[in-house]
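Format notes (please read before filing issues)

Several people have asked whether sequences and structure tokens are stored in separate files. They are not. Every record keeps both together, in the order shown below: the sequence lines, then the token lines. Line labels are part of the format and must not be stripped during preprocessing.
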Amino acid sequence: MRRMRLSAAMVAAAVVSGTLALASPASADPTPAGTFRQLVGVGSDTTQDVTNALAGDTVNGTSYSATGVKSVNGAGIASYDAIEPSTGALGTKITTRTGGTTFLRPNGSGAGRTALSESLTGDLDSTGASVKGQVDFARSSGGPSSSGTSLTYIPMARDAVGVAVKGSGLDTLTVQQLHDIYIGHLTVVNGQTVHPKIPQSGSGTRKFFLNAIGVADIDVPVSIGVVQENQANAALTEDGALVPFSVGSWIAQNNGVSPDYSKTAAAAGGHLASVQLPGDDGATSPVTTVNGKLAPVNAYYENATFGRDVYNVVPSRAIDPTSIFYDKDLYDVFVTSGSHTAQLASDTAESVIAKFGFVNEPYNGSISVAKHAKLGGLEESSSFDHSVPNAPALKSTLGDASLKIGWTPNSIVPAMPVTDYRITLTDADGGLVATKDVAASTTSYSFTGLATGTYTATVTANNVNGTGTAASWTGAVKYASTTKATTATTAYGTTPKVAVTVTGTHGVVPSGKVTVKDGSTVVGTGTLNSSGKVTVNVSNHLKVATHSLTVSYAGATKLNASSATVSLKITKANPTVTKTAPATIGHTARAKVTVKVTATGTTPTGTVRIYEGSRIIATGTLSGGKVTLTLPRLSRGTHTLHAYYAGSTTVNTKSGANFTIKST
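Then the structure lines:
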């Protein structure tokens, strides 16, 4: 169970030496030893004890097992102290999972957020140990140090940062005095030589306090002593000593709720100074006394300069119900959204939070940046690529009230690989229709059962750093249409006919235009009748061959376009051969025979021959479908002749009927 921590002097020594012998009862990590719970948290010293209590452990001799917070599914919190609880030593290691790795215990808000980041990225900690998958949330008394969206800072309560001092000369301080003290320009206040201290690097309280008084961390003189955060016994060792301090921690320690790091200092005159808040004429004390116990002064806690929210930091994707990385237990414990109230925001949990010196706020569990939540990027102690993936290339396929979006990953990717793809569908008014998160190996997703209308689909490739650049498609989703076509073998010169029937799904009767193409050439068009049918007359000058025609329906308001192919065979035209010739002729004269060749839809061209038996006696070429041939002199007697058309590329050959000419 969690027991009393070590004395302040010993803890101060531990900051320097990194080790400490046990001198008094100490608190502990989740108990009994070897206890592992599902939701692992590390980090801030400020919220460590209250989180330990919310986890159901024993804090400073009081068991909170009856009020321990769990998810609806029974997942509990495992909260690990910022320093080794049994000895107070720094630089120790922890194991947070059954069979898990052993890694450096995160000491402070920054270290906790770094450990959470390393748990996501797989980076090693400063000792070379793997933290991947070992941490679920970070306790943090401050906001993000890195921009981005990969981490969500969920407010749990309101705290404030005060200044713990020793010596009556420091009873009241101004922001300007604190600024000058912590840059080394002011060494005496009200006749009292000051001995400023500052919490360890990575402390959320340190970062917040320096920001509040307008001092950059780099401008803090190295002569200012470094102490473990929120440990007054180690810091207030002489008159004139002062150190920034969580007011909640001061209240909890001095009320005997948290393990004692401050009572010795308080008994020797240590107290929280009153501070003249910006814009006020007088000074405000951070605490008051109610029924013999310290209690927060709301005016100080709500002040924008020294009041602060304290957070539980979680991976943003883990609390997104649409993400493949969604952790329902984490969401259930930490998030308040809509009708869902975080387990940490229950009346029971908030009574525990108040007991530890914090002020409960209505935004406990908020994930909205408009209601005190914050977004931040991953925090790494080593060099880290913070870039997000580039936009993929999209391809859309429209179906029957459906849309399939496919994508090709961008060939230029950051060092941190793609972990998932997010597909979002919105309607013409920008309203969210659907969203889906899929694994990195997926390259397409289909939305089905959609109403007809215009939609926009966006696809982002994501990694642990956050959401990548979006690629988008906008177009109309309609019902399906089916085009069918038939035709018959047709002679050249006769108009081919293509019978087209278009049908639509969902009871929609197609209307609109149909186009027939031979290759890329349009050879006919038509408009559907009220039954979705049309017979298209195709050009009667298609070459003699078998044609593969494409019949395309252009679509309509509610119907997608569709097409079909149909085979059309064009054969040569069948001609008719007629002649005009004299019945008789003198044997010394030369008869003239006019031959006419006709065919439907075309004027034949080519050669005409006059035969007597199998002998060619005259040859001519058609012009305008006819030719006049002059025969040679015929011997006396009756001659039986016939005309023969030799045909062309579009018209068949044809022999005319026999005729006779009598030569006298």
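For reference, the curators noted about this record: The chain is about 10% helix and 35% strand. The chain has a mean pLDDT of 93.
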